[in-house]
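User: Can you recover a sequence for this backbone? Please restate the input before giving your answer.

Assistant: Of course. Working from this structure:
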């Protein structure tokens, strides 16, 4: 009879308890800054939260030798003034084997020079147009380098005003600036030809991003590049030499600065992967850590940070 019917789940609850149960749970606090708000409007919810936490939330770590260091929450976006320099240094570090091998290339059969190109194109700030532009660049560079195994490096850098600006380091058979202007009739092309040993300095320029002053515009550029690879390498010259240089450069360090760098999945150069954070003074991993706490709290001596044990080192 009635026993087979499910009991009313609200039968024993007061009206106010029911009201609480029926109130939708808000997942995230509403974004505070105009940039976070804009990212939220674009549907990039987690980027919006990360943007608001960047530089404001920290975790404190303590190693077995009682050194304390802080690890800030970062949004890891290249359109963030606080994060851009670090992202650039990490990329420069990852590309250092390529730079080392190309800048020391002495084989007379290999190119003695490279061309550094800035391509300015009036491409609207949206994903569709950026990915079409990127694909057409790759096609045209493959054509320029047809039959040559040399390495070409392309970087989609971002916007200056209304122009999409792409910096390219072209390491191939020498080409006159006119060759590039003919290859890219829809872009304004600036070309500089230099000797191989200057490649390092130009790689640094290649990875220097122009960040708009307007934070809402920063959010729009982030959205435009969201999910797109921001740089790519074409060509396979000197692969063995570059692999050997990587082996030597990346395995010899027990340097904590190096160990703290994020690594990248080779399949997707824009997907950062976190490595465990190590003490910047002794290189040991943390034995205690706080949860995420507001930056303001660690400046207040009345509230010592809540420490949690994380692991034990031998
Ligand atoms: Zn940031
Ligand atoms: Zn330490």
């Amino acid at each position: 009879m009635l026993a087979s019917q499910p009991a009313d789940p609200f039968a024993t609850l007061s009206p106010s308890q029911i009201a609480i149960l029926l109130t939708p749970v808000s997942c995230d606090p509403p974004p505070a800054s105009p940039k976070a708000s804009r990212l939220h409007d674009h549907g990039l919810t987690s980027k919006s939260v990360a943007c608001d936490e960047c530089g404001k939330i920290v975790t404190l770590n303590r190693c077995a030798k009682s050194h304390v260091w802080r690890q800030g929450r970062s949004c890891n976006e290249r359109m963030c003034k606080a994060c851009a320099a670090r992202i650039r240094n990490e990329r420069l570090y990852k590309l250092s084997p390529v730079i080392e091998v190309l800048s020391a290339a002495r084989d007379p059969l290999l190119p003695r020079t490279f061309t550094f190109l800035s391509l300015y194109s009036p491409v609207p700030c949206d994903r569709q147009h950026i990915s079409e532009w990127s694909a057409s660049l790759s096609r045209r560079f493959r054509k320029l380098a047809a039959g040559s195994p040399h390495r070409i490096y392309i970087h989609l850098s971002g916007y200056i005003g209304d122009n999409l600006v792409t910096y390219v380091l072209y390491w191939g058979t020498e080409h006159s600036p006119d060759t590039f202007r003919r290859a890219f009739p829809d872009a304004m092309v600036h070309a500089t030809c230099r000797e191989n040993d200057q490649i390092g300095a130009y790689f640094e320029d290649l990875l220097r991003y122009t960040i708009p002053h307007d934070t809402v515009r920063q959010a729009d550029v982030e959205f435009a590049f969201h999910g797109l690879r921001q740089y790519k390498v074409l060509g396979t010259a000197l692969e063995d030499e570059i692999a050997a240089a990587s082996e030597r450069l990346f395995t010899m360090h027990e340097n904590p600065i190096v160990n703290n760098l994020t690594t990248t999945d080779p399949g997707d150069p824009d997907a950062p992967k976190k490595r465990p954070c190590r003490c910047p003074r002794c290189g040991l991993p943390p034995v205690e850590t706080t949860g995420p706490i507001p930056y303001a709290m660690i400046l207040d001596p009345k509230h010592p940070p809540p420490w949690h044990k994380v692991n034990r080192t031998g």
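That completes the design. Residues 63, 65, 67, 279, 281-282, 284 surround zinc ion (ligand 2) (CB under 6 Å).
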